[in-house]
Automatic annotation (TrEMBL):
Listed InterPro entries: Elp3/MiaA/NifB-like_rSAM, Methylthiotransferase, Methylthiotransferase_CS, Methylthiotransferase_N, Methylthiotransferase_N_sf, MiaB_methiolase, rSAM, rSAM_horseshoe
Binding of [4Fe-4S] cluster 1, residues: C21, C58, C92
Domain TRAM residues, every copy: 387-449
Record's subcellular location: Cytoplasm
Assembly behavior: Monomer.
Family: Belongs to the methylthiotransferase family. MiaB subfamily.
Pfam families per record: Radical_SAM (PF04055), TRAM (PF01938), UPF0004 (PF00919)
SUPFAM superfamilies reported in the protein's UniProt record: Radical SAM enzymes (SSF102114)
Gene of this entry: miaB
Name by which UniProt lists this protein: tRNA-2-methylthio-N(6)-dimethylallyladenosine synthase
Keyword Lipid metabolism among record annotations: no
Top-level enzyme category: transferase
Binding site for [4Fe-4S] cluster 2: C166, C170, C173
Cofactor binding, note field: Binds 2 [4Fe-4S] clusters. One cluster is coordinated with 3 cysteines and an exchangeable S-adenosyl-L-methionine.
């Protein structure tokens, strides 16, 4: 019989399906980089064209596992036709479910967590050689980042993960369990990854983490640096036009960080600062670590330093014990802040979280109604914020060609999408655009050319 390894088909193509937060988006990009380096794999748009299928999953909200299994059912059919295909499940569902996934879906070759994907090439090799199924969901202390290839910048905007995990343990949330404890990358590593992106033509960088303002990493001086110090250092990098970050936690919103919005010209006036609820009783029950007044004062301070800052938030309605009065407090807080946008969710118990032990006692119909009321308010606020843009001249970073012929697409400083007539030569430049029309989620503008 022929040597088993020789009879293996070559691996050429990779398909990655990504769910969840921006950290997962970042991780999927890095998985593609690492598989490209190890196997020369090329990304394809359809699972049926792939030799390797990876799912990068999210377990933050309800039915996460069910969605994964139903998607896997589709991949199973592909694998029946092409048994050499490799199917892997990574990310937060991978981390939480571990071997249960292969028990229920035995055609899955590989289960891995967010901290082990740097070992993908090794794992794939072993699967092909030994025809085994693997599960790697431990959380090694080592930095996966040390084992990743060069981060290639694609396009105008890029992301850099600066820390992993979460230590906040909000009672409803799985993230501390799926991502592990907060671990901050050293400043030098972050700066070096940012420089790589800038060298590839990226001009806007977003720093990522579940709680970026909880960042505490080793600085080049061997001292502990906090997030604001890191921001000032990144802002100094040559070629960086725009700097953003997400997500921040109200508990660690320092005055220095608010002030950075006034002092760092590259730092864009947009902040996602999730509050979850406007009721003190709910904030306490959720273990958020701050009350409503503290949050409102932070917003005030931010606006003193940066009057035009656009704000967004996450909200949960129907947390166990939420009364009508609690929910009214949420609406009231949202009105006082005046958000530009918000993500609103109905509470769903997540296995393994403390809140899952409490009775999920807000009836579904009440959750639905509260969600609709909050969404209606948020839509009004977004629409008003968009209307205020009309007639303004704003700075737009040109990112790519728009959907319509001759259109370009870019983003304003406060992260709104703008379409305008322009040319591909403008990609990567920041240009003045007069806003002439608003659509639901985006704007139309006219480029102001020199001499106009
Ligand atoms: N680290 C970020 C967000 C993490 S998860 C933060 O602290 O804000 C993203 C959002 O999902 C949360 O802000 C929350 O609004 C929502 N979420 C998390 N767990 C949830 C649950 N069990 N039910 C409903 N929404 C949830
Ligand atoms: Fe989840 Fe809270 Fe951590 Fe955000 S801060 S990831 S909501 S535990
Ligand atoms: Fe989801 Fe994990 Fe991100 S649970 S939100 S993919 S950290």
């Amino acid at each position: 019989m022929k040597d088993k390894t020789k009879s293996l088909q070559s691996l050429d193509t990779l398909f990655i399906r990504t769910y969840g937060c921006q950290m997962n988006e970042y991780d999927s990009g890095r998985m593609a980089d690492i598989m490209k380096q190890a196997y020369g794999l090329r990304l394809v748009a359809l699972p049926e064209d792939a030799d390797v299928i990876l799912m990068n999953t999210c377990s933050v909200r309800e039915k996460a596992e069910e969605k994964v299994y139903s998607e896997l059912g589709r991949y199973r059919k592909l694998k029946l036709k092409r048994p050499d295909m490799i199917i892997g499940v990574g990310g937060c569902v991978g981390q939480q479910e571990g071997e249960r996934i292969q028990k229920r879906a035995p055609y899955v070759d590989l289960v891995f967590g967010p901290q082990t994907y740097h070992r993908l090439p090794e794992m794939v090799k072993q699967i092909r050689r030994e025809r085994v199924h693997l599960t790697q969901v431990e959380m090694p202390e080592i930095e996966k980042f040390d084992h990743l290839p060069k981060h290639q910048g694609q396009g105008v905007a890029g992301c850099v993960t600066i820390m992993e995990g979460c230590d906040k343990f909000c009672t409803f949330c799985v993230v501390p369990y799926t991502r592990g404890p907060e671990l901050s990358r050293p400043v030098a590593d972050i700066l070096s990854e940012c420089r790589q992106l800038l060298a590839d033509g990226v001009v806007e960088i977003s720093l990522l983490g579940q709680n970026v303002n909880g960042y505490r990493g080793v600085g080049p001086d061997d001292e502990e640096w906090d997030f604001t110090m890191l921001l000032y250092a990144v802002a100094k990098l040559d070629g960086l036009k725009r700097l953003r970050f997400t997500t921040s936690h109200p508990m660690e919103m320092t005055s220095e960080l608010c002030q950075a919005f006034a002092e760092i010209p590259q730092l864009m006036p947009y902040l996602h600062l999730p509050v979850q609820s406007g009721s003190d009783a709910m904030l306490k029950a959720m273990h958020r670590g701050h009350d409503r007044d503290t949050y409102l004062r932070q917003i005030e301070e931010l606006r003193e330093y940066c009057p035009d800052i656009a704000l967004s938030s996450d909200f949960i309605v129907g947390y166990p014990g939420e009364s009508d009065a609690d929910f009214e407090d949420t609406l009231d807080l949202a009105r006082r802040v005046g958000y530009d946008s918000a993500y609103c969710f109905k509470y769903s118990p997540r296995p393994g979280t403390p809140a899952a032990h409490a009775e999920d006692n807000v009836p579904e119909a009440v959750k639905d109604e509260r969600l609709q009321r909050l969404l209606t308010l948020m839509r009004e606020q977004s629409r008003e914020a968009m209307q205020r843009q009309l007639g303004r001249t704003v700075e737009v970073l040109v990112e790519k060609a728009g959907r319509n012929e001759g259109d370009m697409e870019g983003r304003t400083a406060d992260y709104r999408i703008v379409h305008f007539r322009g040319s591909a030569r403008q990609i990567g430049q920041v240009m003045p655009v007069r806003i002439v029309e608003t659509y639901g989620q985006s704007l139309r503008g006219e480029l102001i050319l020199a001499g106009d």
